């Protein structure tokens, strides 16, 4: 079973899978076609990726209008942000942030047409991405992490550590 928590965007979903904890640790399903389809998540997932980041690494804001994502933190914690970049959307340019951690087990469904990025809050954050299309640099677009029009309030603890592309 999955618990759905509301977001400000009707198409985006914050999800909490069942987590079974005992003296050995925990077990959870990170994806099930049937369970996610029951919630209206019908994407066919084409690629998975994992990133490892250290504290204050900020990745994003990236998007490919063809791509939906299902993201989660496997270890550590991150402040995860989505921005609506859909043409003609009444919420275009609006953002929302979520704390995803290895302990809270939350997943975020990022629909097509949303930019996505995160800030690593812990010393190490292991981040998992499930993507509906294969990554193609020719389709990737960037929204500057500190775009003044969007105004994301990143919970920075010092200057962000950015890639050349994101800077």
What does this 3D model show about the protein?
The protein is mainly beta and 167 residues long. It has a domain at 44-142: Jelly Rolls (Sandwich). It contains 1 helix and 13 strands. The protein has one helix spanning 33-37; strands spanning 2-5, 13-17, 19-22, 25-28, 47-54, 58-63, 69-75, 77-84, 95-101, 107-110, 114-120, 124-131, 141-142. The strands form 3 sheets. The protein has a 6-stranded antiparallel β-sheet with strand order 1-2-10-7-12-5, with no helix packed on it. A 5-stranded antiparallel β-sheet has the order 9-8-11-6-13, with no helix packed on it. The longest helix has 5 residues, at 33-37. The protein is globular, with a radius of gyration of 15 Å.
Strand order of the largest sheet: 1-2-10-7-12-5
Sheet/helix structural class: mainly beta
- Strand tally, please? 13
Largest sheet: 6 strands, antiparallel
Assign the CATH class of one domain: Mainly Beta
CATH superfamily of one domain: Jelly Rolls
